[in-house]
């Protein structure tokens, strides 16, 4: 072991530390959970698929009454500040099992590559791969669960925290660029979205966690915190009227430090001229992404029911 191996060059506690030499020690990583052919609690089946060298995913399928039954498809992006957590962690596995059970949907939980080893994920590529399943002459290796059970008239994207940030940016891209087979995104949910608040007047902005995470995840971001990817309300950000879906469900919590920005985002969206429908829900007495960390609480279960209802209806 090198003598300088314990010299910290980046301290992003409580998420992670980076040591001289490039070693990354992640603290905010829940244990791995294997997929299951039938979860004993929900009956959900899951399996892992490698999509490309950049992406893999965990698929979730509810019990099927008819082999030809078509289901809404949810493409999900996990939380973790772009640099921690996994689609294969016990936290997200339990969460997706419950959500899929309630929504009766086919879910694809994307295992995108993490910072700092990789820049922000090009998650659009995953959507293109899924959409390619409707193209007969597509040269991709197709997934049977998608071919057999995906209803491409009901494509949803969803995510929590940094995952919700990814969802917003995918939806914006879908407003100006087509998916393979001209597949459309019907709706998306943004849970506790990870956005920078342009109204934030804190004197020590550089000490805030969102600043530190963003600079770490995308150090070369043009305009820093004014980049539209982290600040969708920046002066040079494209209009939210361009969001490429017709339904959005946005949720936050009373104690979430990003709550005010979430409300401002929805308010700006409503005034933008966007023709879709948006619903904002705020959970009393809870903090950022509380439902991920305590999925068995009544408030968490109630929020999951709301998310599932959005997908089903």
UniProtKB/TrEMBL annotation:
Entry-linked Pfam families: Abhydrolase_3
Gene3D superfamilies: alpha/beta hydrolase (3.40.50.1820)
Record organism: Cinchona calisaya
Superkingdom, taxonomy of origin: Eukaryota
Residues in coiled coil: none
Name of protein: Alpha/beta hydrolase fold-3 domain-containing protein
Residue stretches making up the Alpha/beta hydrolase fold-3 domain: 74-291
Family statement drawn from the similarity comment of this UniProt entry: Belongs to the 'GDXG' lipolytic enzyme family.
